[in-house]
Design a protein that fits this description.
heterodimer, A: 466 residues, five-stranded parallel beta sheet, 31% helix, 17% strand, B: 199 residues, alpha/beta, Aconitase, domain 4, four-stranded antiparallel beta sheet, four-stranded parallel beta sheet, 15% strand
Chain lengths: 466, 199
């Protein structure tokens, strides 16, 4: 019987197997300041060393300021964590891109941008949005700090085999419908835990037609459907993106790599445990109304009633979410005012995201009642945007133009909302308190976020498309 | 790490689905560089009425007299969804929980629990419902968990639970996972010898 892409990658990385327990070799280990200090301390306690510093790459992203390059700009505790990463990387010979370095940025933005991520690789990071890198046909997933320590010490990780889910999206997306809308629609359909225990492979003509950055947006939120990882088989779009990047293979190695990459697809007779299908034409711009990413509707739809859900647990979640979000069943989100707009995060902070948001931003001004910030995903994205004068468009429209980092996606720095604030956010989680205690987060695409900034309330961003 | 075998005590009910890691331990407490001291911030937004953690929320179940000192957390579907932060199991264990009983767990969180000697037990919705009802009827109900036998016992009831053999083995023995893998050094080196040159 044939193999899925996931099974091919797992089998190619098997160092050992003991029953259901697989020991996988890890090709790339990305690290950042928040989930590594305890791992390095654990190595020190046992006098262990980092096995493959050459396969490990670090950056600073979560707890840094987006207004200042000073490591202590967000307080001594954040500075301690950032300096600890710098010391640990220096001691163990790990390449680090600290604040101020040209390669610095959100870990899931810089990995692809540098060509570090390639088809068929295993990629891990102490961050659940590591799923992003599945866009390259790499098996990429988030791990905890104990596992970070395990990978640092052994360059391997113990894993159980996941189930296989294929999500097929056929057809052509409508004008103004984005990759963010695709993934939110998928999560809305299968639910916030719909893919638990699975690796998702995204397939179909609508996925094939996406750019690499769009594919990253889709794979990024695989974790919001509960999946271990998300994958898209590599194709010409993938190879063209990687070619010429700093860490991409070149010369003879490029040809060898390419011939291997051509083997990376699910066989026709591969077995998927779960199949999900969506039609691209049915997807409209999405907005979350609740406190998990599965609580989402199209901008053209009203907020649902708890009575719409038969499952008592789902119904109870809806009641709690509506209360927290201060929304009524049947209410139209296009009647709801926003106080804040955040354009950024590992989901939507790449150059194409900023171009799309700027195309809307140049058609108006941010409402006086709204605070809107744009946080590019990396130094390279910021420089590219400035070369295209996108920063000027944003600033002229009344957006703040910030330094790269994770920023308000989780607010480990000072980009935090207050109780009762309502934010149109291009990030990935609308959990209670995620962007600030008592703050309300609605997940949307960059176009929808920019349009909300201009209107002061949610609106169908397709109005801004000509 | 010492192993775990028998756990007994009272259960604190947290009657909601999709409890995410941002709720278990919010981001402002992730700036530490050690593994300890997270218990006081567990469920911060729900447990305290103020940001300084000086006023307890009397409506939150963990704050209610009989549930103080509980060693088992009882909850619903998809517990621990969201981020990979291991601070979540660190906070739960530091608070005093030794086991979590839920209908289901998010994958990364489940693995993080295993790596921290915190026992995650998934039961059916009906079994979890029965436990909620039993704890509601007698909040000081004594529940005992036998990991080697894979059973949960309370009143005259006994439920069996599933756990992967290697997880169970590691929890009972309290094994050093890294130390075990390092014993496979020759296999890792052999694999490295076969890796493609461009990697």
């Amino acid at each position: 019987m044939g193999k899925t892409l996931y099974e091919k990658i797992v089998d190619a990385h098997l160092v050992d197997s003991i029953g259901e327990d697989l020991l996988l070799y890890i090709d790339r280990h990305l690290i950042h300041e928040v989930t590594t200090p305890q791992a390095f301390a654990g190595l020190d306690e046992k006098n262990r060393k980092v096995r493959r510093p050459d396969l490990t790459f670090g950056t600073m992203d979560h707890s840094i300021s987006t207004r200042s390059l000073a490591l202590d700009a967000c307080g001594p505790q954040n500075a301690l964590q950032l300096n600890t990463l710098a010391v640990n990387c220096a001691r163990h010979g790990i390449e680090l891109y600290p604040v101020g370095h040209k390669n610095q940025g959100i870990v899931h933005v810089i990995g692809p941008q540098l060509g570090l991520i390639q088809p068929g690789m295993t990629v891990v990071c102490g961050d659940s949005h590591t799923a992003t890198h599945g866009a390259f046909g790499a098996l990429a997933f988030g791990i905890g700090t104990s596992q970070v320590e395990h990978v640092l010490a052994t360059q391997t990780l113990k894993q159980s085999r996941a189930k296989n889910m294929r999500v097929s999206i056929e057809g052509k997306l409508g004008l103004g419908v984005t990759a963010k809308d695709i993934i939110l629609a998928i999560i809305g359909k299968i639910g916030h835990a719909g893919a638990t225990g699975h690796v998702i492979e995204y397939a179909g003509s609508a996925i094939r037609s996406l750019s690499m950055e769009e594919r990253m947006t889709v794979c990024n939120m695989s974790i919001e459907a509960g999946a271990k990882a998300g994958l898209i088989a590599p194709d010409e779009t993938t190879y063209a993106y990687i070619k010429g990047k700093e860490f991409a293979p070149s010369g003879e190695n490029w040809d060898k790599a390419l011939s291997f990459w051509h083997t990376l697809f699910s066989d026709d007779d591969a077995k998927f445990d779960t199949l999900v299908k969506l039609k691209a034409e049915d997807i409209a711009p999405q907005i979350t109304w609740g406190t998990n990413p599965g609580q989402v509707v199209a901008v053209t739809e009203a907020v649902p009633s708890p009575d719409d859900f038969a499952d008592p647990i789902v119904k109870a979640s809806a009641i709690k979410a509506l209360k927290y979000m201060a929304l009524e069943p049947g209410q139209k989100l296009t009647d709801v005012d926003v106080s804040h707009v955040f354009i950024g995060s590992c989901t939507n902070s790449r150059i194409e995201d900023l171009r799309a948001a700027a195309a809307v931003a140049k058609q108006g001004k941010v409402k006086d009642s709204v605070t809107a910030i744009v946080v590019p995903g990396s130094v390279a994205v910021k420089e590219q945007a400035e070369a295209e004068a996108l920063d000027k468009i944003f600033i002229d429209a009344g957006f703040e133009w910030r330094l790269p980092g994770c920023s308000m996606c989780l607010g480990m720095n000072d980009d935090v909302l207050n109780e009762g604030d309502r934010c149109a956010s291009t990030s990935n989680r609308n959990f209670e308190g995620r962007q600030g205690r008592g703050a309300r987060t609605h997940l949307v695409s960059p176009e929808m976020a920019a349009a909300a900034a201009i209107e002061g309330r949610f609106t169908d961003a397709r109005r801004f498309k000509s | 790490m010492s192993g775990i075998s028998q756990i007994s005590g009272r259960a604190a009910p947290l009657d909601q689905a999709n409890v995410d890691t941002d709720q278990i331990i919010p981001k402002q407490f992730l700036t530490g560089v050690t593994r300890s001291g997270y218990g006081k911030h567990l469920f911060h937004d729900w447990r305290y009425l103020d940001k300084n953690e000086s006023v307890l929320n009397p409506d939150f179940s963990l704050n209610q007299g009989v549930h103080k000192g509980a060693t088992i957390l009882l909850t619903r579907e998809n517990f621990g969804c969201g981020s990979s932060r291991e601070h979540a199991p660190w906070a739960l264990a530091d608070y005093g929980f030794e086991a979590i009983i839920a209908v289901s767990f998010a994958d990364i969180f489940y693995g993080n629990c295993i790596n921290n000697q915190l026992l995650p037990i998934a039961l059916s919705s009906a079994q979890v419902q029965a436990l909620f009802e039993a704890v509601s009827a007698s909040p000081d109900l004594e529940i005992s968990i036998d990991l080697p036998e894979q059973t949960i016992n309370f009143d005259d009831t006994s439920f069996n639970f599933d756990i992967a053999e290697h997880h169970k083995h590691n929890l009972i023995k309290g094994l050093d996972a890294i130390g075990q893998t390092l014993e496979l050094d020759s296999k890792i080196s052999a694999f490295e010898g076969k890796r493609q040159i461009w990697l």
